[in-house]
Design brief:
alpha/beta; two-stranded antiparallel ribbon
């Protein structure tokens, strides 16, 4: 199993006239490869997966893999609150040639810890892809406990955890139970340096959509143990991290990419474009960073 580390971008899904903007998406993939991004994550939260049709979901993963052409890994978003649907998604991603799969904790159903274990085991047993478990209680409501993650770590193709709790203590408490068996990735840009200092290996990043080179550099510096330099990069990124979450992701980052001329900033209902006040703050942060 290939090592999973570094700056993985949680790719936006560009829309135009109500449908997928495949040209803009392909251009984003090429830009990220040129800028040094370490991995691509299509069809996650930032990719508005809840409002993608199954056909759109499949096409985006196929297109991402096709354009990447094996130059950097593709971690396909294949999660669902339906175990059967998640199995169908991961089987498709495996067939399409994904490197791994990001599987979000089931949302809305509120499964028990035993239900979570069985959900992930069923997906694991149905595919040969390495699986990154995505723990995000702020959206899924339920939290996957360290005990459950330790049980899942015993399965050979459970490869890592994306932790979006913002709780840096989780890195240490989980490492105490599982050692180095899983790749630990932050799901919060603001914690990227501290997360790696605690024993993490990378970040699945929203801000990397607009500052891919800096986010990749930060990860490289922490990997080399150059934390003072990494902290300087993080300090420069902090204003962008803040405005990327000024409203519900991905509305702010898509608005930012629109200002940068890379995509149409359209989001799908029930999401809406940022308010006028938020737009002004996003513009100011991008101007300060030299992006517009």
């Amino acid at each position: 199993m290939a090592e999973i580390w570094g700056s993985y971008v949680a790719l936006v899904t560009p829309f135009r006239d109500g449908g997928l903007d495949e040209r803009a998406f392909a251009d984003l993939v090429e830009w990220h490869i040129a800028e040094g991004t370490h991995g691509l994550v299509p069809c996650g939260t930032t990719g508005e997966s809840p409002t993608l049709s199954h056909a759109e979901h499949a096409r985006l993963i196929e297109l991402c893999i096709e354009v990447a052409g094996g130059r950097i890994p593709v971690m396909a978003g294949t999660g669902s609150n339906s175990t059967e649907e998640a199995i169908a998604f991961i089987r498709h991603a495996e067939k399409a040639g994904a490197s791994s799969a990001l599987v979000v904790a089931p949302y809305y159903n509120k499964p028990t810890q035993e239900g979570l274990y069985r959900h992930y085991k069923a997906i694991h047993d149905a595919s040969g892809l390495p699986i990154i478990i995505y723990n995000i209680p702020g959206r899924s409501v339920i939290n996957i406990t360290d005990e459950t993650l330790a049980r899942l770590a015993e399965l050979p193709r459970i490869a890592g955890v994306k932790d979006a709790t913002g709780d840096l203590a989780r890195v240490s408490t989980l490492r105490r139970r599982i050692g180095n068996r899983l790749a630990l990735l932050s799901g919060e840009d603001m914690t990227a340096v501290g997360f790696n200092a605690q024993g993490g290996q990378g970040c699945i990043s929203v801000t990397a959509n607009i500052m891919p080179r800096a986010c990749a550099e930060l990860q490289r510096l922490t990997r080399e143990g150059r934390y003072a330099e990494a902290l300087a990069v993080q300090d420069s990124l902090q204003p962008l991290h803040e405005v990327m979450f000024i409203e519900t992701n991905p509305s702010p980052v898509k608005y930012a990419l629109g200002l940068m001329g890379r995509i149409q900033p359209d989001v799908r209902l029930p999401l809406a474009e940022p308010t006028t006040a938020s737009q002004a703050l996003i513009k100011a942060a991008l101007a300060q960073a030299g992006l517009v």
